[in-house]
What we know:
Number of strands of chain B: 9
Strand content of chain A: under 5%
Order of helices and strands of chain A: HHHHHHHHH
Oligomer: heterodimer
Order of helices and strands of chain B: HHEHEEEEEEEE
Shape of chain A: globular
Strand content of chain B: 35-45%
Largest interface: A-B, 51 and 35 residues
Strand order of the largest sheet of chain B: 6-5-8-9-1-2-3-4-7
Helix content of chain A: over 70%
Helix content of chain B: 10-25%
Amino acid sequence: MRDDPHVVALVTRASGGDQDAWYELVDRYAPLVYTICTRYRLSNHDIEDVGQNVWLLLVEQLGKLREPAALPGWLATTTARECLRVVTAASKAERLGTGLDDSVLFVDDTVIDEEILMAERNAALRAAFAELPPRCRQLLSMLVSDPPHSYAEIHAELGIPIGSIGPQRARCLDRLRRSSALAAFGEGEEKIDIRGGEPGA
Amino acid sequence: MRDDWNDDRLLGVLSQALKARQAVPSWFIETGKNAFAWHNIDAELAQLTYDSNEDRREAAVTRSETASIRALTFTSAHLSLELEVTGNSLLGQLLPARAGELEIHTRAGEISTTEVDEIGCFSVDPIPDSPFRLRCRAPDGTDVLTGWITI
């Protein structure tokens, strides 16, 4: 996943001025940036502030990123730093105003690392999902909705006979599993699994 | 390939992935998309080198402080911008002095312009109530952009 050629291509295209590539990068990584902001329990106003700074910094850095594949890590670190800046400034102002001490919320690096891995997995899954035929996307969307739709509702909505929903679900998930977007992610993880699982190594 | 994910597990992680994206407000996505307007701006960047607020914060720890004027300085290799808040306007001067044009860029992407006179003075009135940055351009080829300013 670290060498996801799709991400590398997006960064290269965006730094060359391709707006669509930039939009796709934002769409892909906005959940990562947003989630880290919520980890710091920022207000919406501060989240907007942090988001703006992070994306503007990225725009300025686009041409300079030596390893575009390291982008998620860069985004996560930059977001965490910006969040900390906002939180620290708020706590400083509070101390001056009231004379009270206030502890700054600290988010552990391991939490940020987990968010990066999760964001990579989620981005791969969403990319794979987007590659599915519309019929599969509709069916899977109904199955994962909250609360999930019953087979009767799916039958009413999509016109699939109830007896065929199970087999179609399996076929769609199989397509998802075999998609190129998810394959790239799986290989990265497999390497880690193999290394970690070798008994004598 | 994720052969180790059975159907239920795959559906579960897919659900998580789609929900993570749905949880992001649309204004947050818009903010990110709008940032691309700053791509390839061919201006020299001026860094914040002085902020009276920073001074005051440190001073307040040791002594009581009377209200003073907010002052900021941005510096690039060839030009400084001295800024001072007076009432509801922002007065500024370019050093070394030169005449030109000043653009005020807001985060929403709006741009307004004001004149810089021959002794390098300008005023921004009213001060934008959200973060903004200033870009100075002069006929001699000067093109300097400040970092984001919040007053």
